[in-house]
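Follow-up to my post from last week.
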Amino acid sequence: MHIIVCIKQVPDTKQVRLDEKTHTLIREGVESIINPYDMYALEEGLRIKDRFGGKVTVCTMGPPQAESSLREAISYGADEAVLLSDRAFAGADTWATSYTLAKGIEKIGPFDLILCGKQAVDGDTAQVGPGIAERLAIPYVTWVRKIEEIGDGLIRVQRLMDDGYDRLETTLPALLTVVKEINEPRVPSLKGKMRAKSQKIGVYGTKELEADPERVGLQGSATQVIKVFPPPRLKEREWIEGTPVEQVGQLLGKLTKLKLII
Amino acid sequence: MNYFLSEEQQMIKEIAQKIADEKIKPVRAELDEKEEFPRDLLKVIAQSDLFGVCIPQEYGGFGGGSFENCLAVEELSRACLGVSTSFAASGLGAYPILLYGNEEQKKTYLPEIASGRKLAAFALTESTAGSDAGGIMTSAELKGNEYVLNGTKQWITNAGEADIYSVIAMTDRNKGARGASAFIVEKGDPGFNFGKKESKMGIRASATGELIFNQCRIPKDRIIAREGMGFIVAMKTFDQSRPGVGAQAVGLAQGALDEAVSFARTRIQFGKPIITFQAVQHMLADMATLTEAARALVYAAARFVDSGAKDFSKASAMAKVFASDAAMKVTTDAVQVLGGTGYMRDYPVEKMMRDAKILQIYEGTNQVQRNIIGQELNKEGGRKK
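User reply:
Got it. Predicted complex:
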């Protein structure tokens, strides 16, 4: 099995601070980590490798310093790593990012399975995983909480839903995005850390990927962020107290009065 | 403090830290309560390669020494001494083979121990032989191509859980201490069984129990070194491992200190966090100073061991005795800083205080350590003239 795990370097969620003036994330001095959901994807990839053999390749798009997240993934057991980095990739939205990652995966070569976290904790879009699958024209399943079986070119999984889970089967190669319920990530190994120090990591830009310059980075982005702001605080607040039954009664009364429900 | 760790040493510390914080802390109270052996955690530790830290690379290890072992043990002990004891006891069981085993034995056993696939244990103590190791009753008799072992070992860490046991038994009772020999016994050897598992005051996650040898037959090439070397094997093993016990003590003390500081910063009495009161500050200051002094001594002793020094009994004993006395004091004071809260099982410090006591007892009581230090002083004094 060749498993590709897409990861993203994000600011440590435990240390997030906002710039009071610009309302953007302060990134200076904030430690970077691998997106926590991607750690579950990596762990699942490593477990599949432990069971069936093969190799795990990690891939990320980001600035040169994102290399450290790839080295970290190697310390956990990933075999190879690829960094997609180019000034031209800057400012990419999920549309351009999934295009670039898909090009990167084409460059990496044949694979059986792509694993992604369900979303990144900084952007929270959950669009890049499915976006990659669409561009590679392979099936995908989101919110996977368990892989039941792999074999004969098929994979059977459980997809976490609000009211339980779906059991789905699809052909390989496929892409899965995983939720935190799927496993408990391991700790890095000493041998992995030693290897992470010296392993060569391929770096690909627009040229190496033979990507369309019009479709990467800010230029290739279909959306544009006009402004980032914290939601305004509502001045008027009202507490409804009492037993749950009383609270529901009061709430119904208020909503009816405001003609929000009839 | 900066102890100028190499990049590799820093890695060992980071991995052990991660295991301690993410894997051990969430389950330590339950393991203690249920006296449950931490099999899953030992698997995690194995997967991270820490079992091989001080085993040479040619036998599948990382090739570190006593110091590297101390770094791993210290961090694990910060979270749970029961888990770290189970881990460290495997190293203790490996040392006789590492120090005195022949090439064949090293090739057979060390890679298994280094990978964590198999757990090891060391067995010296018996009901009649504690501090007085000469009181060993377990016997080993050469019969043809086999040694036949008879007797019972008690209070053996990892008993029943380990696969490989380094056992000290008498091959010639007439020679006293010089009649002891060391053997490798494997779980499953005919006539080798396990007795009762002890219920303990502390380190309750670790397994402590009896080894029972009843006409236990092992191939004669399982002897370590040669007949009569048993006590030397045991004493040299302890010289190697004692800084590790010191490191356990340092980690435990650090864990207790961290809990005490964090509690004192948030506990409000008389309208202020109690850390603003000098009475509390002075306790914390003494706890921190003792812990750091213990760490400095343990690291120095471990580095001395690794430097290739010939005789390090005194340094090893000093590290063990000072650090374990410090851990007893620091954990006791941590309970005091937390007050009534600290006495409750909801907080980890009462467990740390219970766990600390064993450090003053096992691998040679602190009284025995002082004997060793005193005898070395006498020897050194005699040499000066």
